[in-house]
Design brief:
mainly alpha
C-alpha cells in the first residue's frame, strides 16, 4: 500500500487524500472492532456492515481518480475471495470461526485486494501467526487450555494492517 500512497501523493493528490481517508477509516474501525472483539468475542454488524460501502466508495474513488482501474478489480475480487474463503472455513468448523470473523474478513479483503493480490495471502497468514503465537503464550503461562476460546478479530485486523504496511 505504500507504493500506492507514494504514487498518488506525487501524481494524484485527490486520490492520495481519498486513500488516506480510506486508511484512516480502516484504522478507526479496526481499533474499535479489535477492542470490542477482545472484550466480548463479538464483531457487531452495526459497525462491520456499514464499513463495506464506505471502503468501496473511498478506495474505488481513489483508484478511479488516479485511473488505476486494476485496483478496483483487486479490491472487489479480494473482498469476495476472503469472504467466500472464510465462509467455507466457518461451514467446516462453526465453533472455530464465527460469522463476525467471516464478515470482517470480507471487509479486510477489500483493502488487501486493493493493495495487491499478495495481500490476500499475507493478511490472513499473519493473522494466523499472530493468533497462534498469542495462544501458545497463553498456554505456556497456564492462562488458557486447549479448549479456551480466543477472539480472532483482533488478529485478523493486525494481520491485515501488517500486510498493508509491508506490501508495496
Amino acid at each position: 500500500m505504500t507504493a500506492a500512497l507514494a504514487d498518488y501523493l506525487h501524481g494524484e493528490p485527490v486520490a492520495f487524500v481519498l486513500l488516506v481517508a480510506a486508511l484512516a477509516g480502516f484504522a478507526v474501525v479496526g481499533v474499535r472492532l479489535g477492542v470490542i472483539d477482545w472484550r466480548t468475542h463479538r464483531l457487531p454488524d452495526r459497525i462491520v456492515l456499514p464499513s463495506y460501502p464506505a471502503a468501496v466508495l473511498l478506495l474505488g474513488a481513489a483508484a478511479a481518480t488516479a485511473g488505476d482501474w486494476r485496483r478496483i478489480a483487486g479490491m472487489l475480487g479480494g473482498g469476495a475471495i476472503l469472504l467466500v474463503a472464510f465462509a467455507a472455513l466457518h461451514l467446516l468448523h462453526p465453533p472455530g470461526l464465527g460469522l463476525g470473523d467471516v464478515k470482517l474478513a470480507g471487509l479486510l479483503g477489500l483493502y488487501l485486494g486493493f493493495a495487491g493480490w499478495d495481500g490476500l495471502w499475507w493478511g490472513p497468514f499473519l493473522a494466523v501467526v499472530l493468533g497462534g503465537a498469542w495462544s501458545v503464550l497463553l498456554l505456556a503461562a497456564r492462562r488458557a487450555t486447549l479448549s479456551t476460546s480466543v477472539a480472532f478479530g483482533p488478529f485478523l485486523i493486525a494481520g491485515a494492517a501488517l500486510g498493508l504496511a509491508v506490501l508495496p
